[in-house]
Amino acid sequence: MGVPRVALFLAAAIGLAVALAGAALAGVARAAEEVELKEHDWAHAGVFSSFDPAQLRRGFQVYTEVCAVCHSMQYLAFRNLMEIGFSEDEVKELAADYVVIDGPDNEGEMFERDARPSDYFPSPFPNENAARYANNGAFPLDLSLIIKAREDGLDYVYSLLTGFEEEPPEGFELPEDFELADGMYFNRYFPGHQIAMPQPLYDDFVEYEDGTVASIDQMSEDVTVFLDWIAEPKSDERKKIGLRVLIFLAVFSALMYAVKVHVWSKLH
Amino acid sequence: MGFANSQNKIIRWVEYRLPVLKWLDAQLIDYPTPKNLNYWWNFGSLAGVMLVVQIVTGIVLAMHYMPHGDYAFDSVEHIMRDVSWGWLLRYLHSNGGSMFFAVVYIHIFRGLYYGSYKAPREILWWFGLIILFLMMMTAFLGYVLPWGQMSFWAATVITSMFSAIPWVGDELVVWLWGGYSVDSPTLTRFYSLHYLFPFLIVGVVFVHLWALHVHGSNSPLGIDIKRPDQDKIPFHPYYTVKDLFGMMVMFFILAVFVFYLPNMLGEVINYEKANPLVTPPHIVPEWYFLPFYAILRAVPDKLGGVIAMGASISIFFVLPWLDVSKVRSAKFRPIYRQFFWIFLGDCIVLGIVGANPPEGTWLLMGRLATAYYFLHLLVIIPLIGKFEKPRPVPEGIGEPVLKDAGAPAKEG
Ligand code: HEM
Hints:
In chain A, 44% of the residues lie in helices and 4% in strands. By secondary structure, chain A is mostly helical.
């Protein structure tokens, strides 16, 4: 039986090797097109770890004070902030700083009123055309799902926010026909290396209530973590419940295995 | 043993008029099963369990989902954020689809290895293939429902395939779409059909089981069992506990995905709302379609590609006649056994190719692997059947008649 087995394994090994080599080659080819992202250490992303409420608060602050000028966040309701440690009064107070359009009233007119906790965050622009008009024709997309909508979302957004440079650095490989268009900015990590978003963060752009030093890196990390939370507010709960479910299923599997062995042992 | 022996008056009353329990006893409790089935025989019941999981989670999702182009994406986010346990339902359903396919593919390759498609199980095999076909339709339709970028573009690419049909193709596509592009009417009809098809699957599953229970399960030895009293055991408790154990292991694996890697098998771009104006750089289907996608793109001609893809599954309907060997189990077929593994490898290569752009080396690999796929089914299998010398096959499961007949069949 020895020879055919060896032949089989050889065939399988060669097949696999060809496939893997092909995959690796294609990977190399693609990596050459794209720049490698910064690999940041995300403390909240582990199996057993969860979001840090203080960091989410800082991230929220960066979002409202900076990003919200251009980007909407349509799935964030004021009430959601209670899930990250804001008190009900805080949320009410915060909502009241915003104005939303409601109506029609009894006379059929739309009217403006202060936002309530049940309202969603108002968008900075009434529609996409207005947003494009104000941003050189580019659309500042909604940020609610950005972390889930990009490959390696956390590293990608963090790299993007910290990846602005005045001009392409020496030795940075650019496509041959690269030309920084009017109103575009160089960013190492954006596909094509030019983006219509001006660098949004500079050192000390915001003043953190908890005294954390607001460096570009710090703010970028904080807002990225906040974006991760809003992309899936239930992810902490999911991980926590998951652990219990896995333990239960492991124990139950072992139990069923024991029962199976016991039942079958009566057979001869 | 059995439900039907109950002395309860009401049960007796019903049983006298409609012997449901007697029927259940015969099918689930006493049903005589070969005693040497290995764990590869767990996957049929696992597929049944996954079908139930999909239907139950699907029905609850349907209570919160809105099949309209303007609301579908938002309603899925509403499920993820606001519906109690909505995230769990959705992740169970989306990863459950993958689990279902994984289980069914293993189930099919089990059949290929042990010759379960051969007489007298051809019709059983056909109904299995019909289930596979319906599952593929269902999963494709379901993938469109969240109305993300990949939903939209996958729907566009796949439905456009029909335009390759001569004469009526273009009109057929407009009819499928309910308009001149994939749009809200397409989504709404896909939803209707996505709800319908799983119940068709349930119906076909019953026929599949009916056919199975006529001649009983095949076994790792692939022999006709002549002494059922020695070689068969009642389904309950032996296989009920074994299936329950398998089910728990499957749920464990499913839970790892649902709770810790819920989006690993999906495409990130599907978290962006469908946008007819922006085509994603790589349009790829779910992993379970990749081998077929590779075959589709290996053929330079559009119609040819569609035909090749259709043939790649349809050929299996005539497999019982392509494989002329009378011996079922690969255990006793030294040559077939090796080609089985090569074929499996070929399918995996096709899957990897399907995930990559059809250029350069990938295209070449895809073409070679496609050619081999058909070569295996249409040429190699008939030739092996004709020329291979199978090893001696035992008479029964109990004690192998010949000592060198593979590993001696394990008892119990
Ligand atoms: C054969 C069984 C089934 C399979 C293989 C299947 C597969 C799928 C898949 C792959 C998706 C896309 C998931 C995603 O990416 O989000 C989906 C979505 C969906 N399915 Fe099913 N499904 C099945 C049965 C059902 C049934 C019976 C129902 C309803 C009664 C249902 C209702 C839904 C709904 C409402 C969605 C959209 C919500 C969502 O995307 O999560 N499914 N299905």
